[in-house]
Amino acid sequence: MNLDLARWQFAIVTVYHFLFVPLTIGLSVLVAGMQTAWVRTGNDRYLAMTKFWGKLFLINFAMGVVTGIVQEFQFGMNWSDYSRFVGDIFGAPLAIEGLLAFFLESTFLGLWIFGWDRLPKRLHLACIWLASIGTVLSAYFILAANSWMQHPVGSIVNDERGRAELVDFGAVLTNSTAVGAFLHTITACFVTAGVFVMAISAWHLAREQHVEVMRTSIRLALVTVLVGSAGVVVTGDLQARLMTEQQPMKMAAAEALYDTVAPASFSLITIGSLDGSEEIWSLRIPRVLSYMATGSFDGQVEGINDLQRDAEQTYGPGDYRPNIPVTFWTFRLMIGFGLLAGLISVVGLWLTRRRARAPVPRWFFGVSVVALVLPFAANSAGWIFTEMGRQPWVVFGTMLTADGVSPSVGAGSVLLSLIVFTLLYGVLAVIDGVLMVRYAKAGPPPTAVPDRNHDPDDPGATDTTDEPRPLAVAY
Asked: What is the pTM (predicted TM-score) of this model?
């Protein structure tokens, strides 16, 4: 009971937090790019884009920080034995993330927020780029820690002390799993930010509001989604090979493949028993699973039964299979939602091309708005698949999840905190939704049209226009 409640709490908090992280990372780069375009060209359209999308970025960033703080406390509260075991490994990357990456992003983001009318234009631009770099670095150090759980490297297990000890920090940071996960996550972040910008731009364009700003925004968003989707496909292919090599049970569970087979097909949809052990009907693509797992259309993919037998011989009696229905469907939802977002970007780029003879149909704007859910659903499904597919291990091949839970924390305490966090996050979701919708509907702020005879770098020049006001959020 205690274990199940602790896992539910960690899952709810983590999935909720991860709704904000990809958007923060992707949107920070897009906003930095928009401001760069304004600094280089002086076009006020890019200034309006920077301020509008920057305000939405700040709301999302603040919510991500608030929800992320709880993550740190969960390790000590509900997973004390796990924390003792991995503390020597996790201490370094998480400390660097907090002292370097988060300090970098928070400090320079503050300078960017309050430096609009105080810092030189190019120095102010450097602030948002440094904040963006900080978000990316933060993601890498966190993924390096998580990837060690998926593929422990650079460490030894001290049986006397009952913990893992760090022997090669470089191996932890250059873990092939960390590199693959980082590339896959970052490209997914661009898809998320691109779809976010696309959906809100489409909403305004459908109402013929802020047309110049939103037309440029939606073109940027569509290109971002297309490039990001291509990156997700390439890095996902790399991830599948690494997963097959390091965690073959996860790949077998993703297909509910019980018997070793070569070549192996990939099922788009299957009707049968819940755990996939008995199949009534399925729609399959021949040889695709073999290619995903091995890089060869004739490759052999090990089945769950053989892998379970091997695990029992290596680790002793036990059930080493993850939750098959969860891994099977989250794997498909992750792929399906991601590909659908990429397809919409292709259609959108064709419809919004310069030489298009007809105006963009209204149905596309409606599809774009609805598509807002796609990247968030894909990210959540992918995260659930990654973590659930590793079960029953909390550190693969080294520590079982059941061995990591806090022995001194009762089920009542975990249940109480689970209810409190769930209700609190529900309230935060409402607040975030209200703020996002309010400022998204408001559109970009009016920007002053600069005097063409005014040199902004000449301190003796005069300008009768208003200075750009700093970003602010009021509610």
From this structure: 0.87
